[in-house]
Amino acid sequence: MTHMLAIGTQKGLFLATSDDDRRSWRVSSAHFPGHAIYSVAFDSRGPVPRVLAGVDSSHFGPSVLISDDLGETWQEPEAAPLAFPAGTDAAVERVWQIAPAGPLEPGVVYAGTQPSALWRSRDGGRTYELIRALWDHPHRPEWGAGYGGQAIHTILPHPADPDRILVAMSAGGVYRTADGGQTWAPANRGIKAYFLPDPWPEFGQCVHKVARDAADPDRYYAQNHHGVYRSDDGGDSWESIAADLPSDFGFPMAAHPSRGGTIWNFPLVSDGERRPVDLLCRVFRSNDAGETWQPLHKGLPDDPYYPVVLRDALCTDDAATAGVYFGTRAGEVFASADEGESWSTVAAHLPDVLCVRAAGV
Fold it and tell me: How is domain 3-360 classified at the architecture level of CATH?
């Protein structure tokens, strides 16, 4: 099997491949050079794997391009694939997330954008329609903007129930639907927003990333703007799992593709001091759903380390022994073929890494 790693950066998309079980990697030259790539997805539900890339052109605006030959060629729509309907008085600024739906909906792909809006494609990611019920939600005028903007950055379709979707946004928190997007409700009980007058609001939290447990689709893990949480009831309530971490601030959260209770995180000191704790480049892994955490750093830089890992720049692949990958704002990409026990360098001196996605192809 060939393993592929898609690396979205501030100045293009790089595709890395490995044919020796992730021991070494070949990195392509930049696709879409000069354009920021904030979102990438692999869709393996069709007859051939499809790569989808959210391409952010400072001149032409955002678009979603697709490739059915692993990046050899790209198909670009003639018109903007995501465009607000007339009368909404809004324009898509950036595509922050692309998420294929579950196996029961083979042609459906979701996208999350800035401003915070959710979109559904029924043709494999070529064209998208706005999910109006979330856009028209009465809370929307009060949603704030995180440091990176106001955006839906997490989309988690339920693997067994197409009507259930969980999304997260900065800043607004977690929202869920159980009827295919016709109605939406906040799901933030237990997530703290220390920066608001009421630190336990119904909505308004700056959630940075949410991941779903592989064994229990109703268990979620969230990295918040200060706070690391787990929900065991589908998002009805959240409890802290940060006690064993050196800090509760950070951006990414990733879950094992097939084993329940295993997650990875990259803590930073604080929102006011965005650097790795103790200036050490370390990924933290939990094998017990966040009750305890283990620092992993074999093969990672030993020198004082300052770069940050962004919310979509830490991921896993779909292998039984999961590969774990992360990229930094210093343009480095690291890979582990043994679930974080040891690391090697995939690439260095790239532009700022904004997102990484991996799959066997």
Answer: 7 Propeller (2.130)
